[in-house]
């Protein structure tokens, strides 16, 4: 058996930093004095001691009028209302699901915050509570929106739109939440026919396009009608995924890994660029090589820079 | 009063350091991708890995509404000492070390911010050459910073011992394994140097009160020196990983 094996010494590890044309800002580290308390208010990442505002995390300072915040380079997901998240069901409880969303407390999805077959305004009956596990069970992946934030900081989610809900077939990648760029839209269909959900919480979902968005959005009525017929049929989301789709998903996953290794912000533009640049490498598995990863990230950054210059 | 010969006639120690010198510290943040934060730290030949998970939802049995639960686990690799030995995780020594780690780190973490949450800190000693506890605290601090956990200040730890030069006591900073094994006192201090507070103080053997002040101030000085080194490493790490939030849209 002969395969391609590449072994590098620890001292010759690839440096993944991509020279982006940005100047280094002023950094603050824990315990460092940011400013006097007199003129400013303390925000996240800061605390007050001896009439001084001090930083409690390592990162950059942001000032909004009189409010001083220090943002760490990476941290757990801090939810905001309206964010699109991807999460995994941990537990089915009375009238609600517990969802893992990379937040510091588990998120809650209430039974009243999901679309049930039979229309928006249906009363949730005891039978619905019994049948909760048929809608979502432990280990399922969902996409959802942050509806509100409880006083203890945990998130309340809702899936009351047809674009949210259970995710059937595809791949999930976890990245740092701070690498996801905030955009108007986090649901995308890439030119290669893959639908991508860039969750604000750093969970990225990729799946074949057909079942997820198009069919549902185009004929709402038809789907809700069919949901009525075979209510809670747990196999309705399954279909054969073609080989080309599988390869595209795998390539996309490797592109994301390359961008993350070089700490580049992820949005649909960078994803498409990286995906296109990655065709320099014919086989998907070649992208796992650290040099190839750096190359893809570098080419992507280069294309971004040329767009920025124009 | 004569103790073991820890200082040569030139005033150098067994490994050639001056009494107030630290061993070389090298460190790196973000060595793993799976945990929320991680760090590797070398202090001379003592090598330590630390990983931090959380803050995440606390287990029901541990849940506290006052603040975050800090959960530490200290373990030593089989090959970490000269004598190869399998150390089960729950043995007395590592249990005690875990408790001490928790004390030092929960003094630094702003625990009141995250009720109902839990932070897990795992420390693995890869090579023990004296001062494993200090290296663990320093590495865990770096891992916590990497994870973006709010801290009051850096938590640094350092040891110091005492040697005799004629009848003069001379405090030795950052005790190595050879000096530790030679007997004599060993004072371990975990402190938050920038706010001048002590999180943990431990001493092996007995020391006359008259000499305590010298040993203590030397250990505190060591903590301050270590803080400067850690701060530099954190700033380098930030500069390396910084990406400007971009503004382009299509």
Automatic annotation (TrEMBL), chain A:
InterPro entries: Exosome_cplx_N_dom, Exosome_RNA_bind1/RRP40/RRP4, KH_dom_type_1, KH_dom_type_1_sf, NA-bd_OB-fold, S1_RRP4. The keyword Chloroplast does not apply. The keyword rRNA processing applies. Residues 27-64 form the Exosome complex component N-terminal domain. One of its GO terms (molecular function) is RNA binding. Keywords: Exosome, Nucleus, RNA-binding, rRNA processing. One of its GO terms (cellular component) is nuclear exosome (RNase complex). Residues 76-148 form the RRP4 S1 domain. One of its GO terms (biological process) is TRAMP-dependent tRNA surveillance pathway. It comes from the Eukaryota. Its main location: nucleus. Belongs to the RRP4 family. This is Ribosomal RNA-processing protein 4. It comes from Leptosia nina.
UniProtKB/TrEMBL annotation, chain B:
Belongs to the RNase PH family. SUPFAM superfamilies: Ribonuclease PH domain 2-like (SSF55666), Ribosomal protein S5 domain 2-like (SSF54211). Pfam families: RNase_PH. Non-catalytic component of the RNA exosome complex which has 3'->5' exoribonuclease activity and participates in a multitude of cellular RNA processing and degradation events. PANTHER family: EXOSOME COMPLEX COMPONENT, EXOSOME COMPLEX COMPONENT RRP41. One of its GO terms (molecular function) is RNA binding. Residues 21-150 form the Exoribonuclease phosphorolytic domain. It is found in: Cytoplasm; Nucleus, Nucleolus. Gene3D superfamilies: GHMP Kinase, N-terminal domain. This is Putative exosome complex component RRP41. Component of the RNA exosome complex.
């Amino acid at each position: 058996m002969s395969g391609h094996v590449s072994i590098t010494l620890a001292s010759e590890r690839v440096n993944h930093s991509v020279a982006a044309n940005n100047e280094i800002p002023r950094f603050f580290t824990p315990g460092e004095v940011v400013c006097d308390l007199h003129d400013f208010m303390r925000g996240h990442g800061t605390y007050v001691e001896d009439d001084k505002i001090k930083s409690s995390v390592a990162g950059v300072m942001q000032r909004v009028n009189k409010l001083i915040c220090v943002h760490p380079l990476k941290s757990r997901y801090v939810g905001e209302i309206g964010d699109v998240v991807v999460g995994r069901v941990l537990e089915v409880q009375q009238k609600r699901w517990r969802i893992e969303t990379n937040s510091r407390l588990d998120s809650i999805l209430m039974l009243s915050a999901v679309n049930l077959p039979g229309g928006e305004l249906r009363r949730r009956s005891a039978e619905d509570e019994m049948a909760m596990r048929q809608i979502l069970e432990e280990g399922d992946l969902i996409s959802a929106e942050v509806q509100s934030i409880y006083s203890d900081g945990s998130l309340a989610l809702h899936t009351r739109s047809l674009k949210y809900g259970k995710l059937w077939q595809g791949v999930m990648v976890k990245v740092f939440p701070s690498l996801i760029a905030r955009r108007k839209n986090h649901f995308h269909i890439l030119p290669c026919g893959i639908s991508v959900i860039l969750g604000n919480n750093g969970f990225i979902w990729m799946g074949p396009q057909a079942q997820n968005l198009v069919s549902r959005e185009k004929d709402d009525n038809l789907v809700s009608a069919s949901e009525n017929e075979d209510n809670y049929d747990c196999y309705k989301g399954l279909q054969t995924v073609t080989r080309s789709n599988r390869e595209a998903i795998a390539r996309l996953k490797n592109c994301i890994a390359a961008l993350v290794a070089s700490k580049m912000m992820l949005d649909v533009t960078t994803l498409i660029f990286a995906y296109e640049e990655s065709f320099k490498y014919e086989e998907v598995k070649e992208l796992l090589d650290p040099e190839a990863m750096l190359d893809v990230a570098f080419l992507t950054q280069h294309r971004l820079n040329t767009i920025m210059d124009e | 009063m004569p103790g073991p010969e820890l200082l040569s006639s030139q005033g150098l120690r067994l490994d050639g350091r001056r009494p107030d010198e630290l061993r070389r510290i090298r460190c790196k943040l973000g060595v793993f991708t799976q945990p929320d934060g991680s760090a590797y730290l070398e202090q001379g030949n003592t090598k330590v890995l630390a990983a931090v998970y959380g803050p995440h939802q606390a287990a029901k049995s541990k849940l506290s509404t006052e603040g975050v639960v800090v959960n530490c686990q200290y373990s030593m690799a089989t090959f970490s000492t000269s004598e190869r030995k399998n150390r089960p995780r729950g043995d007395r020594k590592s249990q005690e070390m875990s408790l001490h780690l928790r004390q030092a780190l929960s003094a630094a973490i702003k625990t009141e911010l995250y009720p109902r949450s839990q932070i897990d800190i795992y420390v693995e000693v890869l090579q023990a050459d004296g001062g494993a506890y200090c290296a663990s605290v320093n590495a865990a601090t770096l891992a916590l910073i990497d994870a973006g956990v709010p801290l009051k200040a850096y938590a640094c730890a350092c040891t110091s011992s005492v040697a005799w030069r004629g009848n003069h006591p001379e405090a030795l900073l950052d005790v190595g394994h050879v000096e530790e094994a030679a007997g004599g006192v060993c004072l371990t201090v975990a402190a938050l140097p920038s706010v001048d507070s002590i999180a943990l103080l431990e001493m092996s053997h007995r020391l006359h009160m008259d000499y305590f002040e010298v040993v203590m101030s030397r250990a505190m000085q060591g903590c301050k020196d270590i803080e400067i080194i850690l701060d530099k490493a954190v700033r380098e790490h930030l500069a390396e990983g910084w990406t400007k939030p971009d503004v382009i849209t299509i």
